[in-house]
Amino acid sequence: MDFKHYSVLLPETIEQLHIKEDGIYVDGTLGGGGHSYEIAKRLTTGRLIGIDQDYDALEAAGERLRPFADRVTLVHSNYEAMVERVHELGIDKVDGILLDLGVSSFQLDTPERGFSYMVEDAPLDMRMDQDNPMTAADIVNDYSEEDLYRIIRDYGEDRFAKNIAKNIVKERQKERITRAGQLNQIIERSIPKKLQVTGGHPAKRTYQAIRIELNRELDVLEQNLDAFIDLLAEDGRICIITFHSLEDRIVKNTFKKNQDPCTCPKDFPVCVCGKKSKGRVITRKPILPSEKELEENTRSRSAKLRVFERGTSSR
């Protein structure tokens, strides 16, 4: 199996992790193992824990990381269970955490996985975890018009969300929508022709929205970031690569809150809320792909890297 995945912002991420040869690191979105390979080869007595909910990713990464088998542990899980999985391995704190969010090139380019709108006969699947009983087709066919509108508007940020949701509900009354081609036609009819010339494929935003909803991507991120920061040892760093404005906003705001959690009114002379800083935000502005990377991989154009370091005041 050829699990193709371009590791976005690879040198920048490795530099920001401040890898120690005896450190413990967690790659919560293992993918093809590109980032993990660079971490593992810098370890001697350290350890890398690679987590992914996609069986194909685990298989491919296992092959790639075989030279470092003595220092790598692979775990099938959603990264939301990271703290629990790490503790099950007898580890209390880690020196670094990496999350490379979004969908992999392999997932996009494998038609039977159903992530892409480019293959008309592809199934509407989009599951990152193949054990998930729900697929994208279930969302398209079973969600109410109101809920479809909400996710396409919020997660796809599509101004024609109301039109798209209305037409999906109308068409699914005739037959179940199970293939990309069916959904593509509905979306294309929902957006004015003159506006389909720019902005990429008209279905792009709707597919993104359905994928995010199905895999609970924003919920998992928002509900667990604080715990990941707590998992870091002193001076440990968490590096997060996002591809969506909502993801980036969650990361930015959570990092800022952990740096300055004080809820006291601004005019209070001293803090009385008792909330202590857990560290500092390393990236006031996100790190973006270089021009060279953008030329090599157009899918990296929306990538942003943010970094937080656990501080001495966190103990």
From TrEMBL:
**Is this entry keyworded Coiled coil?**
yes
**Record localization:** Cytoplasm
Residue ranges annotated as coiled coil are 204-231
Keyword Ion transport, does the record have it?
no
Give the Enzyme Commission number. 2.1.1.199
Q: State the residue spans of region: Disordered.
A: 292-315
Keywords carried by this UniProt record: Coiled coil, Cytoplasm, Methyltransferase, rRNA processing, S-adenosyl-L-methionine, Transferase
Q: Which domain of life is it from?
A: Bacteria
* Binding sites annotated in the UniProt record for S-adenosyl-L-methionine: G33, G34, H35, D52, Y79, D100, Q107
UniProt catalytic activity? cytidine(1402) in 16S rRNA + S-adenosyl-L-methionine = N(4)-methylcytidine(1402) in 16S rRNA + S-adenosyl-L-homocysteine + H(+)
Chief location category: cytoplasm
Question: Cross-referenced Pfam families, in alphabetical order?
Answer: Methyltransf_5 (PF01795)
This molecule's function is given as: Specifically methylates the N4 position of cytidine in position 1402 (C1402) of 16S rRNA.
Fetch the PANTHER family from UniProt: 12S RRNA N4-METHYLCYTIDINE METHYLTRANSFERASE, S-ADENOSYL-METHYLTRANSFERASE MRAW
Which HAMAP family does the record associate with it? 16SrRNA_methyltr_H
Protein family membership: Belongs to the methyltransferase superfamily. RsmH family.
Protein name, UniProt field: Ribosomal RNA small subunit methyltransferase H
Q: What organism does the record attribute this protein to?
A: Roseburia lenta
Q: What is the lineage of its organism?
A: Bacteria, Bacillati, Bacillota, Clostridia, Lachnospirales
